[in-house]
Fold these 2 entries.
Entry 1:
Amino acid sequence: MARTGRRRGNVDTKRQIVDVARAQFAELGYDGVSLRGIARAAGVDPALVHHYFDGKSGLFADVMQLPVDPALALPIVLDGELDQLGERLLRFFIGLWESPETGPRMRAALRTALSSEESSRRLGDFVAREIMTRLAARLDSDRPQLRATLTGSQLIGLAVGRYLVQVDPLTQASVEELVTATAPTLQRYLTGPLPS
Amino acid sequence: MARTGRRRGNVDTKRQIVDVARAQFAELGYDGVSLRGIARAAGVDPALVHHYFDGKSGLFADVMQLPVDPALALPIVLDGELDQLGERLLRFFIGLWESPETGPRMRAALRTALSSEESSRRLGDFVAREIMTRLAARLDSDRPQLRATLTGSQLIGLAVGRYLVQVDPLTQASVEELVTATAPTLQRYLTGPLPS
């Protein structure tokens, strides 16, 4: 009984933290939220928040029901040759959308995020902080932040066209066709000449 | 009095056609709808639908509150040198989003269209039929439809990143910076070598 009670207590506490986090992200935006503030509002020890979630990025991923926490996944993708980074990013990104396990959650999360101005901006802050900054830090060219967001624009455009709006033949093209057609675009944004 | 009555009658008839069209687009999808069927359901003469709207594309644009009917605007953009088409498309597209008059309507229309699976598919059918087919017909390379949708993916990705999610520095970049950075991508998709 004690074990069951403790287990249920943990589930409730975790859910309570997620609920508080959801409200705070909505009210304060991604950048305005701190794990300490969430712990205070939830009436729990900050160490407990850290125990359940791998930092703010992981907590946001949980709130948004994202299938991956970019703070954990991105370093693995960024590791490796810089002149193949475009293709690695593309294959990882497309993989998230193609997989029967993560694809439906990616579609639902993007739809939800884009449905209102407020949630779009929240997603934007998260993407800037947790994805674009990491990607830019991996580059050693001029204007790394602009390069990162241009890369993001082609990736998100593929997602919207192929998985949300579903325009043929973009939807019917094979993953290999997509990679061959768009990896050079990403690689040029990341490491190619960028007009000043 | 008679004039006022007739004028109001026209406004009511036009609104009635739009209401019927909205319902039919939702029920049957873009491709499943005909102007004749809409006229029948609205209890008006088909000639009246043609009188108020420039074809199905214009009626859909009205229902979606799009600021432009691509069937009218696109031929103007497509006209001209093929090796500058990427930049022309880009400048026209960005112009729609940047303008204080059309920008807010573009944002609202895209948000609404992406908010549900059904409305996304409807937008997809419309884009395929009224935009991609016209763009592909202008190209004289292999796989024109795939080229058109790849072009569309970069355009819509710019719109989502810069105007909906608003990730800096994509949002703060000048139009000229965007054009110099992404026009080569569009031009490669349109007329460049495409891996088979």
Entry 2:
Amino acid sequence: MDWEKILERLNSFVDANKYNELRGALMIMNVVDIAGFLSTLESDKMLKVFRILPKDISSDVFTYMDDEQRQNLMEKIGDKEIGELVSDMFVDDAVDFLEELPAGLVKRVLANVDEEQRKVINRFLRYPDYSAGSIMTIEFCDFHEGTTVLEAMKELKRTGVDKETIYTLYVIDDKRKLLGTVPLRRLILADDNAPIESLMNANFICAETMDDQEHVVELVRKYDLNSIPVVDKEGRLVGIITSDDVMDVLEEEATEDIEKMNALLPSEEEYIRTGVFKLAKNRLPWLMFMMISGIFTGLIIVYFEKILTDLPSIGVALTACIPMLMGTGGNCGSQASTLAIRGLAVGELEPKDVLQVLWKEFRVATIVSVALAAINMLIQLFVFKRGLTVALTVSAAMIFTVLLSKSIGCTLPMLAKKLKLDPALMAAPLITTIVDACSLLILFAFAAVII
Amino acid sequence: MDWEKILERLNSFVDANKYNELRGALMIMNVVDIAGFLSTLESDKMLKVFRILPKDISSDVFTYMDDEQRQNLMEKIGDKEIGELVSDMFVDDAVDFLEELPAGLVKRVLANVDEEQRKVINRFLRYPDYSAGSIMTIEFCDFHEGTTVLEAMKELKRTGVDKETIYTLYVIDDKRKLLGTVPLRRLILADDNAPIESLMNANFICAETMDDQEHVVELVRKYDLNSIPVVDKEGRLVGIITSDDVMDVLEEEATEDIEKMNALLPSEEEYIRTGVFKLAKNRLPWLMFMMISGIFTGLIIVYFEKILTDLPSIGVALTACIPMLMGTGGNCGSQASTLAIRGLAVGELEPKDVLQVLWKEFRVATIVSVALAAINMLIQLFVFKRGLTVALTVSAAMIFTVLLSKSIGCTLPMLAKKLKLDPALMAAPLITTIVDACSLLILFAFAAVII
């Protein structure tokens, strides 16, 4: 049945106060879709429907509600009820949720969370943003060395229901140091009396709590993992990160790069929910910087135009080429910097490859610039009927602008990485600003030489 | 032990021809790292080392080698040996590998693949690129309804080793129609005699073979899935897609968007391995289009400059502002279009939100433009000592340019989506080209009115 029809039927239950039927329908639905359904209801109805959900479902649904819905709900139900919801959430989801709340509210909610969960949450809230610790969860299955396969299976059956994943098991020693990982599939296939450490992979991949989340993503991507254990400095197992959280980070990092590459300060909030002033604040710094650079670029025109006023017809012809030349230079630079930035981001390029990349860009630029200059030459000569000198000047300037902008475009991101800056900052806006000035200087230099 | 030391030790084994020791060391290593080690060896040694790997490991290592390495290897070993490797690979990896090869070679390799695997591969090679069918695998565990838990566990122990994932099981009817999914955890916790369909989730999420891979990623992301079943038009189970492949697509799609947003035709090849002519070919179309647009933008300057020649001092002052105004307009438009494109890509925005977004951008643009115009006014008056008329003209043009470019920037991507075009094409390069012309027209219009 399609989503529209399902919604219609659910709404008919709500309108007729058929809450038993509604509960029945909701209990066969996916929690993500239940959250989606709740978001279509006005807040009184939403509260009523939320309350008829069984406890174990309601905390999952709460996890998938968006910030606005949750805020709506929190205004209606008491701190105690929220505390109970948070007690039932996976630690990583609970931490994500609490990090969005004002500090005062966090305290009130936490006061109603059961003690054990509260302790863990408090510890997790102290991990810095973007660290492995801040995105991990503690719902994993660990076993001490010496446990047999049969004992492990029994323990799994007893406690596995509440774990975020039971598909990788962790073997630890007395001090909780991680010794190895055991895929559940290997446990299932093994002899009942085998000790669990005989099945384990002692050469496992793991992250440290303070590792950057980008590094975690790299490891998971490189080794095609479903989940990755997180250890502290002493090698003790403190959490795991599952693939759904890795995908969140992957998408978040791509968004952040795209924003930085387009003169925006990155923001984690959804666009629609971000205030107008906050949006303006994220945009102004780069705009201001580039506007001021642009003013100085303008001075170059003024300076040279004074020289060119002796030859007014040539002056006008050259001025007419400025937007085209600056635009082409900017686009060429942006192409080269994009490939370098993305190559660095996905680990395909490293700063040491700079000469190889530069040589490649130089050859690409030669082909591209000659093609562009040829077409431009034809347009100047036959469409605009300019003289040969002007056409030659513009075409020569074009070739050098493309060569230069491709070189700058590919070099700056790699240099930035080398200097431990973010390569994504060396994208179109900055490159364009630099190339604008360069292209003007090149144009006028050629004008001076040829004319 | 760190990677450098491991490499050193492995190399010492190779140099001393200690192949037993080497095999021992390799057999405790991750296949990704073995592939990494092989890539450091020259081709004769690489071949020797590859040949000492046990069969089951060598096909996994082959999966993780890069194209160049594989080509290298394929030149040395016969079609028969390659055929054997491909027979042992997961179908999705084998298909990925074969898709990169020239057609003649594919035939030769396939002739040596065992018949069953060959049939499947041939079917998979027919799915269109970027479809769910093209990235799925057939190594999943399915059970007919009526199977008991005990029988299912026995079957799993017998066949599970060769499956890409056993953590979600699929229940099918006599016609292979997918009835539901059973998480392995639920099977483990269940009573031995329960029929498997009593454990299943009948309200499962699935993809169709011809669905776009982007849609698959959306489903997996939305419902936090570890794997997703793929059915044909009749609802019959034909494959599954696992989270590692979803992450590949996620990264691929982000790269594609970033490339499109920067005037590049998207390419799947690694930058370093792409030939210079291919790179030039991917860049020229947009550059050519934008160069020609730029030429026409230049005509606007020429047209109005003729009018302004009566007032040479004002003419020069205005010309000096052109790079700044065009640059600022371009950057503002690119900021707005980036947020719209990304919002559409991650499913946060939909074309129907266009008025809401436009209203938001209008308010942001008001704040931003007033701030920029004020600073600009101060610079014109006090740094460059221009007259009030020029300063007013430029500042007024600035405000309108920002308002217009933000509006165009946010509207075009949403319009593109509505028209089923790719919003990523409506990014900085195109927006900048449009805004360049608009900002000039605005500047000269104000000049005409105020002066």
